[in-house]
Amino acid sequence: MIRPKALLSWSSGKDSAWALHVLRQTAEVDVVGLLTTTNAAFDRVAMHGVRESLLEAQAVATGLPLWKVPLPWPCSNEAYESRMAQVCLEAVAKGMGVMAFGDLFLEEVRDYRIQKLAGTGLRPLFPIWNPDTAGLAREMVAAGLRATLACVDPRALDAGLAGREFDEALLAELPLSVDPCGERGEFHTFAWDGPMFRHPIPVRRGEVVTRDGFVFADLVSA
Fold this sequence. Notes:
Largest sheet: 6 strands, mixed
Number of helices: 6
Strand content: 25-35%
Order of helices and strands: EHEEHEHEHEHEHEEE
Low-confidence stretches: none
CATH topology of the largest domain: Rossmann fold
Helix content: 25-40%
Distance between the termini: 42 Å
CATH class of the largest domain: Alpha Beta
CATH superfamily of the largest domain: HUPs
CATH architecture of the largest domain: 3-Layer(aba) Sandwich
Number of strands: 10
Mean pLDDT: 96
């Protein structure tokens, strides 16, 4: 059976990395590329603040081509949607029929993605949707996924956790109000090792800065 080709929305974090692992295990689709929005003004991954050089190292470690979508800063919703619509056209033209996402349980986000892909020729796929996120977080760690907190929302979580590894010790420290996978935006991660990678991407924590109300740990190649 010929599997449909898929682009995977890739944030550089643990959830999209785990989605890649799951998709490769189930063989439901053939993931042929990673799609990431970047901040063109700072050469970093949008939202997570991870350097593009580390993003590119991730792509090499997965063995997949990287589809970067540079966004202006600041970026309006109209500009974002225009660029994403163009990417969808290019993906379909190259024979892709699926766009996969690492979303977990936010219905409004899922509905938005479904709405925007309607009529594009790309079917939305959510391979890790609606799990027990506490169980999922521990499953990731147990399977060897290693990630570092690149961004923390200090309104939800201790700012001092920026730069910490996502591991059992961290999970034990999280307040009950914080989702163990950070799905509500409490924190964002950079995944640097695990079963989805051919080899680790060694990183270390650099400067920690506060910007736009969030605390970012600048990760650099070790």
